């Protein structure tokens, strides 16, 4: 497979997450729980065969960080899935992709990383696009704006999840880190669901299909294709490609739910993506790429 074909499939796989969530009749908590549970079950054979011995090398501090990371991930999914009940797929996925903006703030506050001029420009662009996007949703109704707020908080939580994993992943393999964090998330969600008064079942057969597809397609297929593509293309190219998840999600939402977008939503979403791409793109690598190919 050509690596760019794999990346395209990966983007559409990740974009399908919001579609499966909206197709399911389950509440946000059970949806997130089964997504994590089935992901752990599917990854378990690989982990037990190749990585189980790694468990004894993990320190208490690393366990604590991974537990915190798993908790952030659990509530990210709860809030993001809940946001899809109030706002459009396009608005929700665009706001969730603001993760780099929250990462900028997080690295500045936690690691004292200086803010460059480029970073500040990108932040202003993305915030402006977000305001325009939210303004379009205000015109639709107050519930859409509430959904936008849930998506923004979900974005902040996934940024905290990434920041937690930044140090731990230096010494722990991707498989081990992922399965532990997913397992912690599943445990947190198993506690949350009954406390919230939601139910683990029974569900219709079609809902179980959505649960399993959430684990297989966006979690395992999407991210695994991105990881495979790293052998052939730069991480920078994949980072930019992932940002087009809202585009893929919006296209799928149009065909599945007939979700139409207002002009302000489209313009705001495009501005947000432009700001994030501007921040993500590496000018030196892009210059070398064009010199090499053109």
Defining traits:
single chain; 294 residues; mainly alpha; 13 helices; 0% strand; globular; disordered C terminus
Folded structure, characterized:
81% of the residues lie in helices and 0% in strands. The protein is built from 13 helices and no strands. It has helices at residues 3-23, 28-50, 60-83, 89-96, 99-111, 117-140, 142-168, 174-196, 205-229, 235-242, 245-257, 263-280, 283-293. The chain is globular and about 55 Å long. The model is unreliable at 289-294 (pLDDT under 50).
Q: What's the gist of this structure?
A:
By secondary structure, the protein is an all-alpha fold. The chain contains 13 helices and no strands.
Number of strands: 0
* Series of H and E elements: HHHHHHHHHHHHH
Percent helix among the residues? over 70%
| Beta-strand percentage range | under 5%
Taking all residues together, what is the mean pLDDT?
83
**Uncertain stretches of 5 or more adjacent residues:** 289-294
Topology (SSEs and partners):
Blueprint: H1 3-23, H2 28-50, H3 60-83, H4 89-96, H5 99-111, H6 117-140, H7 142-168, H8 174-196, H9 205-229, H10 235-242, H11 245-257, H12 263-280, H13 283-293
Helix pairs in contact: 1-9, 1-11, 2-3, 2-8, 2-9, 3-7, 3-8, 4-7, 4-11, 4-12, 5-7, 6-7, 6-12
């Amino acid at each position: 497979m050509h690596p760019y074909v794999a990346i395209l499939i990966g983007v559409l796989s990740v974009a399908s997450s919001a579609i499966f969530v909206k197709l399911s009749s389950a509440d946000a908590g059970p949806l997130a729980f089964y997504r994590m549970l089935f992901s752990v079950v599917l990854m378990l054979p690989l982990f037990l065969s190749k990585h189980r011995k790694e468990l004894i090398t993990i320190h208490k501090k690393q366990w604590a960080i991974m537990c915190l990371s798993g908790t952030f991930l659990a509530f990210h999914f709860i809030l993001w899935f809940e946001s899809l009940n109030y706002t459009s797929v396009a608005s929700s996925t665009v706001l969730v992709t603001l993760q780099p903006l929250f990462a900028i703030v997080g690295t500045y506050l936690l690691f004292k990383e200086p803010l460059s001029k480029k970073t500040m420009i990108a932040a202003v662009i993305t915030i402006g696009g977000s305001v325009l996007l939210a303004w379009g949703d205000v015109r639709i109704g107050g519930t859409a704006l509430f959904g936008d707020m849930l998506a923004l908080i979900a974005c902040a939580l996934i940024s905290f999840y990434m920041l937690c994993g930044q140090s731990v992943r230096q010494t722990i393999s991707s498989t081990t880190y992922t399965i532990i964090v997913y397992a912690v998330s599943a445990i947190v969600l198993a506690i949350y669901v009954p406390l919230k008064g939601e139910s683990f079942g029974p569900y219709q057969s079609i809902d179980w299909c959505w649960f399993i597809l959430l684990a297989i397609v966006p979690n395992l297929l999407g991210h695994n294709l991105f990881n495979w593509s790293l052998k052939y293309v730069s991480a920078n190219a994949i980072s930019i490609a992932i940002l087009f998840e809202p585009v893929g999600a919006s296209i799928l939402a149009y065909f599945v739910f007939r979700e139409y977008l207002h002009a302000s939503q489209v313009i705001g979403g495009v501005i947000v993506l432009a700001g994030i791409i501007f921040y993500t793109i590496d000018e030196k690598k892009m210059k070398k790429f064009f010199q090499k190919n053109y």
